[in-house]
Amino acid sequence: MKRRLTMGVAAAAVGTLLAACGAGGPGSGGGKISGGKLTLGVLTDLSGVYADLAGNGAVAAVQMAADDFQKKYGDKAVTKKIDVIKADHQNKPEVANTQAREMYERKGADALFDVPTSSAALAVQTVAAQQKKLYFNTGAATTELAGKSCNAYTYEWAYDSYMLAHGTGTQVTQQGGKNWYLIYPDYAFGQDMQAKFTPAIESAGGRVVAKDPTPFPSDNYSTFLLKAPTLNPKPDVLGALQAGGDLANVVKQYDQFKVKDKGVQLAIGLLFDSDIRAIGADKLAGTMFTTAWFWNLDDRSRAWAQRFQQRTGQLPTFDQAADYSAATAYLEAVQKAGTDKAESVSKVLNGMTFDDFFARNATVRTADHRVTHDAYLAKVKAPAQATQDGDYTELVRTIPAAQAFDKPSPDCHLG
Amino acid sequence: MILGLMRRLGDRPAWMRWGLLAVGLAVAAILPWVLYPPVATDILCWGLFAVAFDLLLGHAGLLSFGHAAFWGGSAYVTGLIALHSGLPFYVAVLGGAVAAAVLALPIGYLAVRRSGIYFAMITLAFAQMVYFVANQWSAVTGGENGLQGIPRNLPGVDLSDAFTFYYAALPVVLLGLAAARRIVRSPFGRVTAAIRDNTDRVRALGYPADRYKLTVFTASAFLSGLAGGLFAVNHGFASLQEVDWTTSGKVVVMTVLGGIGTLWGSLVGAAAIVRLEDWLSTAGFEQTDLVTGGVFIVVVLLFRQGLWGTATRLLRPRPPAPPTPDPAEPADPDRTPHLTKR
Question: Which residues constitute the signal peptide according to the record (chain A) (predicted)?
Fold first, then answer.
């Protein structure tokens, strides 16, 4: 009897609480710039396999964009205070989910940038839509971001797996690498890369002999490297679709196991300058790859890269350059809209055409928020040809913006 | 005067129990006003999980090292139900908990035949199998990417605000806690406690010990499933982390930190760990595990009975009063010696 009474009282107390607190909670400010300042959040890999291609360099790029914006507008700027905050997502989607929520909700971020690792980017994209705040992806390659999972709050600024596959996959196959063995990291990025490379190779007249998912992240690729020459028919090309620190491991072990001497060439899906730095240009000399940008492209790029180098001591990767480009475009859009309300900023951005040091002949597509711009088919310079330290890339040809990216996906419905 | 009053807390007369209940409910009610609401909800989820775990470890003497299978299994099932059916999240969470209990039946059936380290290893092995399935069956679970965008459905109520969601989740957790307490205090609970202390004697008395163990194992899995499902809905996300062995380890740490066999101590342990991790990560400190690990070592070395166990021992009159057996009301399980035999 006594116990039943206890339960009754407990239930009643909870019921009252639910009723009393249902209407509480934090509300949103009504001012033009919420909180009187802009907060740009950089959610990135600060400690793992993608820390070199994004990481603190990405934070520096966004900070640079904020500084340049303030210098440009001075007193006319829409706000005098722009904070740049950073967080580490450890390349894990569940951490990215928590951190993104935390940055938007608790630290007041108006927009998030970067986010390498496709699975993490997909998580951030979901949170962005829930929070009704903007997210500019530069680090993740999966086409799902502008496809099945697309939403009105996410923009894809730099590159995607379609761009990489249709540059590298097509070109290498046409040059005689008919039979491919693909190894890809087993998460959103790798799965999507594999799904884009296979048709690109086949439509160029090649064939995928075998494909294997590899653990992510991983230190040991010996199983796959030893398997490559034993496949029947023997592949001409080993397509390594790993990225960052994982890719460095694949290439080093490809070298150690002397797979090249057994007649299997290496093709790389995604290559950043930071990877070439880590692997060594001598090991990669002549390797074809597709990139969204490289610092030695022309004078405009070199000028920006030099300023970035003065700030960080290192030359930028295309991801970091894209972060600057996206952050600048965001700030300009806020300036124009006069508010940091996501929907209003979005209206300025959608359909915008622009041309900056990073994105050439660029358009922000209204249908799926994909930014299309010129991409570059390139190859790694032999160290002897390099004009200076960090000069790794030789342009083979420019892929025009209209061809570099796929048409808007029919699966994408911006809600 | 105050000390005397506090000492009497340990004896817990009826009015004191009411007081504790009132304090507990008050803390639960104001938590999201004090803490960042998603963290407050995390504390609820992990708290229920730790209590469910203590039901097994503290009150049946079974150290499972595979409880992530039930927490995470339910997280996935809850997520799938919520994503594909659009039913209210309460139904989804209940579905997840039932799935966890169903999963626990075969695992428990095999595992309870062994005890100690063997029991722990068998449960760990099964949990790793669940992990493998979740990783490989990516068409359903999303593999490495996890199950994303789990909605918080509840007809007529907008739960998108974490603050509101806390109060929607609270009754589920309170019901779970009440169920755990009811089990511990029931005649059934007394038998499991006896099994913990001397299995052979319980068998000699004619109780089917294995069936009792299986039942408490399944009940623990069900409550863990409730917690895991809520957690998934809270984060809108179910990932491999939920079925990872480190999650099984984390709940052990929480329970031991709070005090094995104290039931409510597990709540304190869970709150301490979640709060500590949140505080460290917002302070920008990267090596969170290093600190929680250090705290764990200190607690195990200095306070063998955990935070709650140590607190109640200090507040109890010394030497402990001889237990006065009351035929109508079974003795407070908190007063029985904890895990004399493990």
Answer: 1-19
**A362-364 sheet: strands from edge to edge:** A353-354, A362-364, A371-372
Structure tokens at A317: 């990767």
Q: Are B40 and B78 in contact (CB under 8 A)?
A: no
Our CA-based measurement puts residue A301 at a distance from the nearest CA of chain B, in whole angstroms, of 34
Residue A98: its chain B contacts at CB < 8 A? 38, 235
Tokens of A227: 């398997």
Q: Which residues of B touch A89 (CB under 8 A)?
A: none
**A70 and A130 co-located in one domain:** yes
Q: How much is the ipTM here? A: 0.70
What's the CATH code of the domain at A207?
Answer: 3.40.50.2300
Burial B110-135, CB ≥16 within 10 A → b, else e: ebbeebeeebbebbbebbbebbeebb
**Which residues sit opposite A38 in a β-bridge?**
A82
3 state DSSP class of A135: strand
> Which neighbouring-strand residues pair with A353?
A363
Contact A17 B157 (CB under 8 A): no
Q: Where are the alpha helices (DSSP H) in A204-317?
A: 222-227, 244-256, 273-279, 281-284, 299-312
Residue length, chain B? 342
Cβ separation B171–A14 shorter than 8 A: yes
The CA distance from A120 to the nearest CA of chain B, in Å, is 8
Chain B nearest-CA distance from A119, in A, is 5
User: What predicted TM-score, i.e. pTM, was given to this entire model?
Assistant: 0.79
List the one residue out of A163, A174, A232, A239 whose CA is nearest residue A203. Answer: A174
| Alpha carbon of A388: minimum distance to chain B alpha carbons (Å) | 36
How far apart CA B64 and CA B55 sit, in angstroms, is 11
The pair of three-digit structure tokens given for residue A255, joined into one six-digit string: 């070298």
Q: Is A212 on the interface with B (CB under 8 A)?
A: no
Q: Is A19 inside any structural domain? A: no
Chain B interface, best mutation among A98, A104, A144, by max B CB count within 10 A? A98
User: How do the pLDDT tens digits run along chain A, 415 residues long?
Assistant: 445 545 455 555 444 444 444 333 333 333 488 888 999 999 999 888 898 899 999 999 999 999 999 999 988 888 889 999 999 888 888 889 888 988 998 889 999 999 998 989 999 999 999 889 999 999 999 999 999 889 999 999 999 999 999 999 998 999 888 999 999 998 888 999 999 999 999 999 999 999 999 988 899 999 999 999 999 899 999 999 999 889 999 999 999 999 989 989 999 999 999 999 999 998 898 888 999 999 999 999 999 999 999 999 999 999 999 999 999 999 999 999 999 999 999 999 999 999 999 999 999 999 999 999 999 999 899 988 888 888 999 999 999 999 899 999 999 988 6
- One domain, residues A149 and A107: yes
* Subunit contact B178:A10, Cβ cutoff 8 A: yes
Rounded to the nearest 5 percent, the helix, strand and coil shares of chain B are 75, 0, 25
A139 and A118 share a domain? yes
DSSP A90-111: TT-HHHHHHHHHIIIIIS--SE
